Fold each of these.
Amino acid sequence: MKRTSAYILILCALSWFGASGLMLAQSSSGEGTAGAKFLSIAVGSRAVAMGDAFVAVANDASSLYWNPAGASFLQNNALILNHINWFADIKHDYVGSTFSIGDGTTIGASFTFMTMPDQEIT
């Protein structure tokens, strides 16, 4: 009986470790990466300079884009206006504003706009 339990335990452990290679959070096949590329356009020059690794340190009005919960740590009112000329005359604009009303309470609003010229269909 003891021996059977040990075999079952070893079998379960081996199957768990064997299957763990199949349970990856990221996929290397590239599925789902073609659409909605505008969502990967970064906001704020500081965030872009940091390689978009900005979620934990977002301590300005761009925190509404990167980490909305981070806006509660803002002590002052803040405003961000961001304009990006992307390829093919595509324009990406971001406006964000936060108002600190004290005691870790902040009210904020942000808007993202993306415009592009009419495209000729051939």
Note: The two ends are 75 Å apart (CA to CA).
Amino acid sequence: MALGFLFSCNNSRAQVQNPAYRAMLKGLYKNTVPLIGVKQAQNTAGYLFLDAREWKEYEVSHIENALWIGYDHFSPDNLAGIPPDAPIVVYCSVGYRSERIGEQLLALGYTNVHNLYGGIFEWFNQQQPVVNNNNRPTLRIHAYSKTWGIWLANKAQGVRLTFYHPCCCCCLPGRPIIS
């Protein structure tokens, strides 16, 4: 009961701007990892951001100073040197994969783990900066697939969406699509 209260309190601070996106996330999340909203995550110094997307997604853009830990090939070895009480924010495109990785972190004994509500898509939607592999600001974002890319609302001039997912034919490998 106390654990459910903790998660529900934490969820109340996590918001996304699009009501349809909010409804989709509500059905997607299992609420097994405490959520943190974009505003709270950006305003709290000391969080270690862990990117739970695949390398092809990370190299297009990621949150500045985020460490890539992956999803399909996640290994606890990638966490060497991170104290178990370190404040951690795990993210992926929308928050599903990062919730799964967050569950693993909690099972490994990490005690201060949060899932970024809405993922890097909501970070980007709220016009927060992302950087490329050279640590330079970019307007490119990996949309995972056309299906998931619909949740990227920030379609300002110059924003480039990249679609690539190796397991399906709905994507265009390595080919950016300008929206």
Note: Residues 137-178 form one domain.
